[in-house]
Amino acid sequence: MTQAPEKLVCRNVWKVFGARAEETLARMGRDPAPERLIAAGLVPAVRAVDLTVREGEIFVIMGLSGSGKSTLVRCLSRLVEPSAGEILFDGQNLLMASEAEMTQIRRHRMGMVFQHFALLPHLTVLENVAFPLEMQGVARAAREARAREMIGLVGLAGREGSYPRQLSGGQQQRVGIARSLAVEPELWFLDEPFSALDPLIRRELQDEFIRLQSRLRKTIVFITHDFDEAIRLADRIAIMKDGVIEQTGTPEELVLNPATPYVREFTRAVPKAKAVRVARLMVAEVPPEGVPAVPARATVAEAGAAFLDGAELLAVTDEGGARIGVLRRADVIRLILGGEA
Asked: For residue 309, what is the DSSP state?
């Protein structure tokens, strides 16, 4: 299978806070120990990050509070200026772009959603979603038509005239998502967008997010500290600790083959069935007619409930709904009981 093109590439990216940070970092060489930086009065927030995000994938960056994940995502869009390194967006080094160029890139090619909805309270839903297009100079009729399309896409048709105070937290976050999509971004940054919501609304929005991605195929960098959320959403995950990426891989790779003691401890309590996707366990054969189906993207844990009624196998479907294989009950049981995936 041919890999998708590289959309965003980071090479040796650093963010160090403190007086004359860039000059001191350059003087210390390519990879100074954090103790040296701290001794020089600096705070290393992101250290020597290398990563590649491919077109159309959901790339999750996760870690505990203070790990550097939010600082990193702000470096990727230059909302925070990196201290060193390269950030290539479609081959263009963003660190060489002028502030005016970055403003245009952020307005026209990037979308951003943060934990705090930041809706404008005096504007309606329609006006909030259309606002970034207004900043671009798009004519009123065109921007409102686009805004209505995005409002319908996130399931809020009929609420165009409502104000943020008249919406629930989950609805407000949907407005934030619609607003960020209105500019048709090539690259979409989401920094813990659901963490302020209660668990039921959070899962509902995760489902909505998965549905949107199946239609839009955006390139997404998603920040979270919740491993369950990361497993549900990610194509690949990077786990950060103390500003460093410990390991990058699929959810399955991280759980089944942790590369460092920290990743092993981080994933130790995660059941294999929650990390392994159906596609890994399925057998590529034609399923019998009438057999219940599960998506290849679903986790084994999500699919397992369908076996409670006594079924011995399930059909597996691709994103288009085509039946591409079968999932056998015996293979699921073997994985749950500790067998190899």
From this structure: G
The one-letter amino acid at 107: R
Beta-carbon-side half-sphere exposure of residue 304 (alpha carbons within 13 Å): 19
Residues 237, 240: Cα–Cα separation, whole Å? 10
pLDDT digits (tens, 9 = 90+) for 130-140: 999 998 899 99
pLDDT digits (tens, 9 = 90+) for 214-252: 888 999 999 998 888 999 899 999 999 999 999 999 999
Count Cα atoms within 13 angstroms, Cβ side, for 3: 7
Structure tokens at 175: 């407005």
80, 90, 281, 304, 334 from 310: Cα distances, Å: 54, 50, 19, 11, 16
Spatial CB neighbours of 8, under 8 Å, sequence gap ≥ 6:
52, 53, 76, 87, 88, 89, 187, 219, 221
Q: Which residues of 162-195 are buried (b: 16+ CB within 10 A; e: fewer)?
A: bbbeebeebbbbbbbbbbbbbbebbbbbbbbbbe
At 76, list the tokens: 């990727």
CA distance 296 to 170: 28
Instruction: Give Cα 104 to chain centroid, integer Å.
Output: 23
Nearest 10 degrees: Cα torsion 180, 112, 255, 337: -30
What band does 339 get if pLDDT is binned at 50, 70 and 90? low
Cα of first residue to Cα of last residue in the chain, in angstroms, is 21
CB 69 within 8 A of CB 239: no
DSSP string, 10-78: EEEEEEEESTTHHHHHHHH-SS--HHHHHHTT-EEEEEEEEEEEETT-EEEEE-STTSSHHHHHHHHTT
For residues 103-132, average pLDDT: 91
Name residues whose C-beta falls within 8 Å of residue 321's C-beta, 6 or more positions apart in sequence.
Answer: none
- Give the contacts of 29 (CB within 8 A, at least 6 positions apart): none
